[in-house]
Design brief:
With about 220 residues, the protein is of the alpha/beta class. Helix content is about 45%, strand content about 20%. It has 8 helices and 8 strands.
């Protein structure tokens, strides 16, 4: 090992990266189902479909997904595999990329799937809004994944009326809410959700959130992995 470079670790990474790209391109993406539970009762209400690749461990996959392009590729392959081609007979939450939804939204017909839309900067807003409105009219359930709260997200929520919002884990710090401003944003998000009759799902919240805080920020459902 020299200057922090470990050739063995690099070999492992290169092999995993090649396996990742090969499997994603071929649509060979597996699913780990993670229970989404009620905060109040701990009762399972649905599953979260988390994409995995056979032969790549969770830590390596997490590292590979720090690359934005890898993340999009895996999400698209998994969404097509689970959200279009497979039959869904029980409630399950599936992440989909906004541009993928614009392209394939008309193929979606599973009434028990909840398509969690990940917003990207390059998506055409009017196209995305229209497909989400169309899905609503067809009785297809969708959610919006919130990675940062801003006016764009507020407008999209009001105009498309999703059934759920997912508060992404990147909003949290290592042990608690990252900043007081984050807490204020979540209070605002909860108020908006209440006004539109939308339920909020929290991804991987920390145990340091007490019951009173959880109620204030609308932590009705949550999942951990």
């Amino acid at each position: 090992q020299k200057d922090g470079f470990d050739p063995d670790e690099y070999k492992v990474y290169t092999k995993a990266s090649k396996l990742f790209l090969t499997n994603v391109k071929a649509g060979k993406v597996d699913t780990k189902y993670i229970p989404i539970r009620s905060y109040a009762s701990n009762r399972k209400v649905m599953d979260y479909a988390y994409p995995t690749i056979n032969g790549i461990n969770d830590n390596m996959l997490t590292y590979l997904l720090t690359n934005h392009n890898n993340n999009i590729k895996l999400m698209n392959s998994h969404a097509h595999n689970v959200g279009v081609e497979k039959s869904i007979d029980s409630p399950v939450l599936i992440d989909v990329n906004a541009n993928w939804l614009v392209k394939y939204g008309k193929l979606l017909n599973y009434k028990k799937a909840i398509y969690a839309v990940n917003i990207t900067k390059d998506v055409l807003y009017e196209d995305l809004k229209q497909i989400m409105v169309d899905l609503n009219n067809e009785g297809i359930i969708f959610a919006i994944r919130v990675k940062r709260y801003n006016e764009f997200i507020t407008m999209l929520i009001k105009q498309t009326k999703p059934k759920f919002l997912i508060v992404d884990k990147m909003i949290w710090g290592k042990t608690t809410l990252s900043t007081s401003n984050t807490f204020i944003n979540l209070l605002t998000l909860k108020k908006l959700a209440d006004s539109e009759n939308i339920k909020i799902i929290y991804e991987d919240p920390h145990m340091s959130v007490d019951k009173e805080t959880a109620e204030k920020i609308g932590m009705r459902y949550l999942y951990k992995y």
